[in-house]
Design goal:
The protein is α+β, with helices and mostly antiparallel strands. Helix content is about 35%, strand content about 20%.
Length: about 450
């Protein structure tokens, strides 16, 4: 520090004419900031101006140096992260584009190998261009849901069809393959017919017979039934016969796992057709139970054992439960769980129906739309069958063949045990994660 020169400008203030920019007096101590060096100096006034002791603050200087070093490293690190982010984004786009091509090829090969065994009975494969032509450029939309969009189309022979354009799905296309494979081996009046499919790159579509009257869901909810109880009864029997065919009439047992009003299509004569096989599972007819990684189906129609294995093993009895819940909604003209009701006892319709059908078998059920004694007996029979189908214990539920006998038979049915409230709407004990919900 040799050679520094000081001048006194005023008492108790020292300023160096070249290097010291500012001197601040505080309790007989001067803090000097020098413009041409990173070293701060402490100028101590010993009471005898203009003599000062100039001392470098080495510790503070090290902090400044460390701060600069840290700042430089941080800026460099942030720059590297930004560059890596840009590179990773471009890499991921390329990777997934390649992966989609590989998966598409794998899915294509899996489906082709599966359909080979059906020979001439396999559904026809269409290109995406043919699908677009068939639907007249996707002009007439019939409906839309979680699965995708349904358009009305027309085959070259003038036959009306419904074309379901599927949304892009995750995984290996299991749901698409399930639907094609399941329906391809069926032939029943109460199961929808698959006329063809499209697997063209990422584009997937299913071609069905056109159902003039749409889904059952449109007709069963409301104070006044649009179909009448007798026709609803016939529809319930038809659905039961379709499920019985899937369980026992095919080369492989088909478990639907998504039976609900929206999955039932009605033709021009209101004959029911079971559709939406995306969640179905195929197994041998000898297998009494099936294994599943997670729950699948639609809330309100899922059997308790599908949600939690503590209720029992998953089997064809799970479809029986779904059918029972649907029959109860058909005869009740409402959702089985409904919060907007006049009395809390009516929130869960199966429980309300059980309470009213058990003590007074000859009393009026007071259901909307019932105007005759015959309809009263039909409603009572449908309720009793529905209550047996929704028993919590799968072993207590009837098979679908037994359900048909109960619906069509003339014998007086016994009253089932009291149904438990195991629906995911209200049960907090067993949470639900559906595999995928179709609308």
């Amino acid at each position: 520090m040799r050679g520094l020169k000081w001048i006194t400008v005023m008492p108790q203030v020292a300023v160096w004419h070249v290097r010291i920019q500012e001197v601040i007096e505080f309790d007989q101590e001067f803090r000097c900031r020098c413009g041409d060096t990173s070293f701060p100096f402490t100028c101590r006034y010993n009471g005898k101006p203009p003599t000062y002791l100039l001392q470098p603050n080495i510790q503070f200087a090290r902090k400044i140096h460390l701060l600069k070093l840290t700042t430089g490293i941080s800026v460099a690190g942030i720059g590297m992260l930004i560059c890596f982010g840009i590179w990773y984004t471009q890499y991921r786009k390329s990777f997934y584009k390649c992966l989609r091509l590989i998966n598409g090829k794998t899915e294509d090969q899996s489906l082709e190998a599966l359909l080979k065994q059906y020979g001439s009975l396999a559904p026809r494969r269409y290109s995406y261009w043919e699908i677009k032509k068939m639907t007249h450029g996707f002009k007439d939309k019939l409906g839309e849901g979680g699965y995708g969009v349904v358009y009305k189309g027309e085959l070259s022979d003038g036959r009306a069809v419904a074309v379901k354009i599927l949304k892009a799905s995750k995984g290996d296309g299991e749901e698409f393959i399930n639907e094609v494979a399941s329906i391809s081996q069926t032939s029943h009046v109460n199961v929808v017919s698959l006329l063809g499919y499209c697997l063209d790159g990422r584009n997937k579509a299913l071609i069905y017979d056109f159902m003039l009257n749409g889904s059952l869901e449109k007709y069963i909810y409301g104070d006044v039934s649009l179909l009448g109880l007798h026709r609803l009864y016939q529809i319930a029997v038809g659905i039961a016969e379709g499920l019985e065919y899937l369980h026992r009439g095919c080369n492989k047992r088909i478990l639907h796992f998504d039976t609900k009003p929206h999955s039932i299509l009605l033709d021009e004569e209101f004959c029911p057709k079971i559709s939406d096989f995306g969640l179905a599972k195929l197994c041998t007819r000898k297998e009494s139970t099936v294994s599943m990684l997670g729950a699948r189906g639609t809330i309100g129609f899922i059997a308790p054992e599908v949600i939690s294995r503590t209720f029992g093993q998953v089997s064809h009895k799970s479809d029986v439960y779904s059918h029972g819940m649907m029959v109860l909604e058909m005869v009740g003209g409402r959702k089985n769980v409904k919060e907007e009701v006049s009395h809390t006892s009516k929130i869960y319709f199966p429980y309300w129906a059980y309470q009213h059908i058990r003590p007074w078998p000859d009393d009026d059920l007071k259901l909307h739309g019932i105007i005759s004694k015959e309809e009263e007996e039909t409603a009572r029979k449908m309720i009793l069958v529905g209550l047996w189908c929704i028993q919590t214990d799968p072993a207590q539920r009837p098979s679908m063949s037994k359900v048909i006998d109960m619906l069509e038979g003339s014998l007086i049915l016994e009253i089932s045990p009291k149904p438990l409230l195991c629906t995911p709407y209200c049960s907090g004990r067993h949470s639900l994660t559906t595999h995928r919900q179709y609308h």
